[in-house]
Predict the 3D structure of the following.
Amino acid sequence: MTLPEEILIISPVIVKKYSQVNGDVDENLITPSIYLAQDKYLQPYLGDALMAKIKSDIDADNLSGNYQTLVEQYIFKPLAWWVMVDVVPKLTYKYLNGTLGQYNSEDVTPISDAQMKDEIARARNNAEYYTQRLVDYLCDNSDLFPEYSSNTGSQRSPRTKVTNATTILFSTGRDSINSRPTKLNRYLP
């Protein structure tokens, strides 16, 4: 069985250009995060039809005009930062046969899990900022991209609101299933 070829909208070189990833980092460590970021974080904001159009143009080496502007000025940055959200832990830890270890070097001291979470949060904030710029541009210029509003059937339509990962949902202190106080609230005055 042959796996279908994946089209990358950005390369590891672009990720390195827009982030703190050192040029020496093996591109094979970045590429899987690009695939994930395209599917998980970018496609919901482009919709299936526009994503397919962009990948098709890239595959045919035919990206031009408004689509090239969209990719280079509005997709590169959010996608690079969504890649960072996923790749930071992968650059810190190494998956080996039967174990998970931490990279170690004579010149570098590994960061703590708390510092790693801070780095991921910074990358997420950057990604959300640039994603909002992308969504605003697409909404303001939807007439330039007919695929943006042409999703049909089982195709996913694009999201037009970027949700912030730091949004806090406050609870009423009641379990919605059976209206009992939650464990936390049992001990509060």
Observations:
- Residues 114 and 120 are 10 Å apart (CA to CA).
